[in-house]
Amino acid sequence: MNNIIPAAALQGLRVIEMGQLIAGPFAGKTLGEFGADVVKIEAPGSGDPLRNWRLIKDGTSVWWQVQSRNKRSIALDLRSGEGQDVARKLIAEADVLIENFRPGTLERWGMGWEELSKVNPGLVMLRISGYGQTGPYRDLPGFGAIGEAMGGLRHLTGEPGRVPVRCGISIGDTLAALHGTIGILTALYHRKVNGGLGQVIDVALNEAVFNVMESLVPEYSAFGAVREAAGSALPGIAPSNAYRCTDGFVLIAGNGDSIFKRLMQTIGRNDLATAPTLADNAGRVARADELDQAIEAWTLMQPVQEVLDILGAAGVPAGKVYTAKDIAEDPHYRARDMILSQTTRDGYEVDVPGVVPKLLGTPGTVRSSAPGLGDDTDEVLQELGFSIQDIAAMRGRKVVA
Question: Gene3D superfamilies from the entry (predicted)?
Answer without folding.
Answer: Crotonobetainyl-coa:carnitine coa-transferase, domain 1 (3.40.50.10540), formyl-coa transferase, domain 3 (3.30.1540.10)
